[in-house]
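sry for the spam today, last one i promise. struct tokens for design, 381 residues
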């Protein structure tokens, strides 16, 4: 056993927040607590916990998870759960490295040797998807995801939805599967129309057809479309997920390991999904630590179907990408739409700590974009 001696966090470009935990024997684990657009809030939570948790047994992962979740009276939500995610992932990495095994060996062992993956095309204002889809195909992907639309009004011109259909048709003509992300920016009057227009073209899934705060609307859309409905990135615990499973309005759950409390909670959510015959496709437009953590869960989850990768995503600017901050980026090589399961200890990646420390100096927090309509009204991002 080893006691927690130090908790550090590093804000690094393009928009990620890494956590490092060191025990009193010098053993180290890395986690990721990225929360897009709210970095400073998560840092404040980590700062408070960093002093409080010194001296706790680093191997008591579940005790620290429960202390973080229940020990402060207020619980849940994106900020607290993202901070908890960073700590939880780092503790799992530390423990598995001490035992010299991959994390998935501590979760019962793998059920697969490789995992299907997809990448983004099109950006926040989707365009030129055919060229980008061809580039992804050349990289080895056979599935992609794109935003359905630009920003929309509550009730906008139906013509704006036709462009989405044409983009899906263009991508599918290349032999690729296409997920379509409504991104919560499409409100109910338009979402019903768009789901109907897309259905004849067999999207891999439609994602966040409405914001998850509107479960009644999602149930309504689910009852009127045969498109698989995916959502979950804005659900932050098993308790948030529960009503969606019970209502039967989700087919593919997409929890984000950086926002749900890390590996511990993702494992519980994955098992809950299995009991409802719901597939797991973790959300991960984030960094290499987050993706490596997801893959540990994907490896042991029977109902896992596909994993999001941030390689070349439109938010990765300034020279840093999924293959940054690691000494073994070759683990992200995509072949015929799959990546091989990593075999190294812990998370299976080797963090380039010097690069993390160098690029974290004076790193600016990423700010979420905002869209304005013709009347200068704020629209959903």
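last one done:
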């Amino acid at each position: 056993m080893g006691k927690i001696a130090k908790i550090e966090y590093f804000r690094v470009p393009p928009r990620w927040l890494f956590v490092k935990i060191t025990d009193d024997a010098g053993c180290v684990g890395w986690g990721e607590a990225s929360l897009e657009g709210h970095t400073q809030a998560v840092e404040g939570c980590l700062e408070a916990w960093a002093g409080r948790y010194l001296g706790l047994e680093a191997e008591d992962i579940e005790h620290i998870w429960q202390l973080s979740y229940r020990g402060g009276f207020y619980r849940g939500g994106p900020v607290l759960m993202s901070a908890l995610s960073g700590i939880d992932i780092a503790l799992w990495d530390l423990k598995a490295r001490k035992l010299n095994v991959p994390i998935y060996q501590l979760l019962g062992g793998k059920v697969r040797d490789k995992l299907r993956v997809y990448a983004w095309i099109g950006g926040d204002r989707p365009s030129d998807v055919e060229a980008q889809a061809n580039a992804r195909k050349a990289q080895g992907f056979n599935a992609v995801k794109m935003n359905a639309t630009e920003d929309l009004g509550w009730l906008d011109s139906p013509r704006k939805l036709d462009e989405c259909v044409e983009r899906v048709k263009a991508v599918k003509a290349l032999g690729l599967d296409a997920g379509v992300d409504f991104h919560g920016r499409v409100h109910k009057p338009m979402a019903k129309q768009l789901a109907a227009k897309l259905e004849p073209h067999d999207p891999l899934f439609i994602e966040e057809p409405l914001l998850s705060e509107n479960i009644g609307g999602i149930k309504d859309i689910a009852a009127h479309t045969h498109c698989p409905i995916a959502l979950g990135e804005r659900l932050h615990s098993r308790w948030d997920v529960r009503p969606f499973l019970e209502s039967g309005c989700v087919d593919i759950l997409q929890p984000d390991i950086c926002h749900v409390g890390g590996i511990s909670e993702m494992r519980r959510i994955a098992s809950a999904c299995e009991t409802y015959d719901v597939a797991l496709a973790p959300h991960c437009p984030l960094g290499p630590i987050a993706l490596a953590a997801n893959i540990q869960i994907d490896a042991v989850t029977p109902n896992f179907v596909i994993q999001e990768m941030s390689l070349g995503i439109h938010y990765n600017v300034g020279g840093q990408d999924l293959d940054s901050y690691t000494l073994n980026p070759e683990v992200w090589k995509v072949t015929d739409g799959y990546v091989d399961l990593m075999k190294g200890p812990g998370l299976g990646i080797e963090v380039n700590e010097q690069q993390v420390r160098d690029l974290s100096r004076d790193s600016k927090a990423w700010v979420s974009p905002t869209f304005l309509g013709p009347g200068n009204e704020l629209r959903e991002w």
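The chain has a mean pLDDT of 96. ok im logging off now
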